UniProtKB/TrEMBL annotation:
GO terms for cellular component: membrane. One of its GO terms (molecular function) is transmembrane transporter activity. This is Major facilitator superfamily domain-containing protein 7. Its main location: membrane. Keywords: Membrane, Transmembrane, Transmembrane helix. It comes from Bagarius yarrelli.
Length: 383
């Protein structure tokens, strides 16, 4: 639902601009505002999740989301003065943007507290791809040793620990770049394709294919990683495939009358790219444990929002200039170059032990030894 609210206007940007009597740049800000709001609020959200817990944070996010959605509807009612439409819609969009971090940071925390190590990636994937009801902040019994010691570091200490963790910083920069590429693609897809004569309906179909195949990709990768624990290898391969598809999109989006090819490329972009998100969130916890799950996942998300603003602003400027020419080409080529730079850097420099899994394995071994020792002592006493 949060994804739908964020991208409501992007597939029909020209129609929205005409309806609200504003410019295309102003319509783009209905999407960009999510990134701007998320940067300062994310720090508060990580603290709330690690301090208040899941349930109160999710409830607050849901109420903000509902209030924002109502305002978005009110803002386009015909009996209101035209000059009030865009400000009211933007206010509603801001409220929805305030709600987004409160919910989008929750899956990693949910997976850590409620699920054992062989189910966490799948649980993160399901929670990331849908809306899931949460009745309690923590389960009656912790499902793993890490859940029992969750939030063992304070928020401020956790931030300092993350900023000095080399593997985490590589993940933060590179995966944050991937979020930026995804945001640019989703926000500007209609404006890129319409340059070559493709309709809003087709741009919306491409966006739907991207998300639909992304869900399938995330489901498969989540199950695979839970079975194999190949977090790093899975993400590196997926990032390389995503970069290839991104490069292909940069080429085919410059061509006219190629709906089948463009649709297929968008589907593959979602299949390989969207699938990375829940696994990367889990990997951010693995390489930074015992830092709080919301904190480690939250900083990666903040990095993505900062890079999203930079990329979207840059590519919007380039696209506006190019569409004035009869020989217009899309600005997606820069998008692909940025994606390859991040991918190469991540593949070469990212290496990390899985700290949370290692701790849980050690705890399980110690528990087994204690159980065996206690059994021997009991046998000796009985004798």
């Amino acid at each position: 639902m949060f994804l739908q609210l964020w991208l409501t206007f992007a597939p029909v940007a020209d129609k929205v601009a005409e309806r609200l009597n504003v410019t295309l740049d102003q319509v783009n800000w209905l999407s960009v505002v999510y990134m701007v709001v998320a940067i300062p609020l994310s720090f508060i959200t990580t603290w709330m999740l690690d301090t208040w817990g899941l349930r109160p944070t999710m409830i607050l996010g849901s109420w903000l989301n509902m209030a924002g959605s109502v305002l978005r509807v009110v803002g386009v009612l015909s009996y209101l003065p035209v000059y009030t439409w865009f400000p009211i819609v933007m206010t509603g969009q801001v409220l929805c943007a305030l709600a987004q971090p409160l919910v989008i940071f929750s899956p990693t925390k949910l997976a850590a507290l409620w699920f054992p190590e062989h189910q966490r990636a799948t649980a993160n994937m399901i929670a990331s791809m849908s809306t899931v009801g949460i009745q309690e902040s923590v389960p009656p019994m912790p499902p793993s040793a890490s859940a029992d010691t969750s939030n063992s570091e304070s928020f401020s200490k956790g931030i300092k620990s993350l900023l000095t963790n080399k593997a985490y910083m590589v993940l933060l920069v590179c995966f944050g770049s991937g979020i930026g590429i995804f945001t640019c693609f989703s926000t500007l897809l209609d404006q890129i394709l319409c340059v070559k004569g493709y309709s809003n309906d087709f741009a919306g179909l491409c966006g739907a294919l991207f998300i639909l195949f992304g869900v399938f990709g995330a489901a498969f990768l989540g199950l695979f990683v839970d079975k194999t624990k190949l977090f790093t290898e899975s993400i590196k391969i997926s990032m390389c495939l995503t970069s290839l598809v991104c490069t292909a999109f940069a080429v085919v989006s410059q061509l006219g009358e190629q709906k089948v090819i463009i649709g297929a490329v968008c589907a593959l972009f979602g299949l390989f790219g969207f699938a990375i998100y829940p696994i990367a969130m889990e990997l951010s916890v693995e390489c930074s444990y015992p830092v709080g799950e919301a904190t480690s996942a939250g900083l990666v998300f903040i990095s993505g929002q900062i890079q999203s603003i930079v990329y979207t602003t840059l590519l919007t400027t380039l696209t506006t200039k190019l569409t004035d020419s009869s020989q217009s080409v899309c600005a997606a080529g820069d998008d692909a170059n940025l994606n390859w730079m991040a991918t190469c850097f991540f593949v070469i420099f990212f290496h990390t032990p899985y700290r949370r899994l290692n701790m849980e394995a050690e705890a399980a071994e110690n528990h087994s030894i204690q159980t065996e020792t206690q059994g021997l002592l009991n046998n000796g006493t009985d004798t």
